[in-house]
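Entry 0007
Protein: Endonuclease/exonuclease/phosphatase family protein
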Amino acid sequence: MGVRVGTYNVRGMKDDVPALVRVITAMRADVLCVQEAPRLLFWRGRRRELAEAAGMRVAAGRRLGGVAVYVSARARILHAESHVLKIFIGLEIRGMALAVVEVDGLRLAVGSIHLDLDAAARMQHAVEAIALVRAAATRFGAVPVIAGDLNEQSAEPTWRYVAGQLADCYPRAPRGDGMTFTARQPRKRIDAIFAGPGLDVVSCGGAEAVAGDLAAATDHLPVVADVRVTQVTGG
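Output (C-alpha cells):
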C-alpha cells in the first residue's frame, strides 16, 4: 500500500503555466500541497483549472493564506477545512488548507502550509498547524502529514520543532540533493514533507520532470515523498 505526497510553491501561477502543468503532472502525486495558489481575481477558477489540467482536483483551500490541497483520482476526500492562522499586524496573512483523504485504505490528514519570513510568526503558525492536523487525524483515524514552504532550513528553530513532531521525510529516504530554492540555482532546502507515525518513507526528493520545465514553472522546486503503512513484523 503506497501513497505519493507532494508539495509545490507555484508562485501564484505568474510564470510559465504550461510548464507548471507539466511538472505537476510529472510529480504523479496522490495528494499535493500547494503554496502561493492564486488568491486574487478569479482565484477559485484558476486553482481549479490548474488542478484539472494536471489530472487532479481541489480538495481544500480558500483565498486567504494562498494554500491548497489537490488530490488525484485515486484519493477519496473524506473531509476538508481551511484555517487562517494567527494574524500578525504588518505581516502577510497565513493559513492552512487541510484535507483528510483515503487512498487504497490508507487515511491521511494532510495540511498545506506556507510559513512567514518572520521567525516568531513562523514558530507560532507551525505550532497551530501541528495542532490542527493532529486534531483532524485523531477525529478521522488518519496519519497526520504536513507539507509546504517553511521559509527556513533544517537547522533552524521552526523546522526543528516541526521535525520533532512529525518525521522529516527527506532524511529518512533521500533521493537527490534535496535542494528546493531557487529553482534555477537550488542551494537551500526550504520545502519539505513531514509524516506522522505509522508510515514508512520509501523515498523523498525532487520530481522526475524536464529540467527546463522545472526552471520555468516557478521559483521553487517540488518535493515528492512515497510513503506506505509501516510493516509490522512478528518476533
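Curator remark: The two ends are 22 Å apart (CA to CA). The chain has a mean pLDDT of 96.
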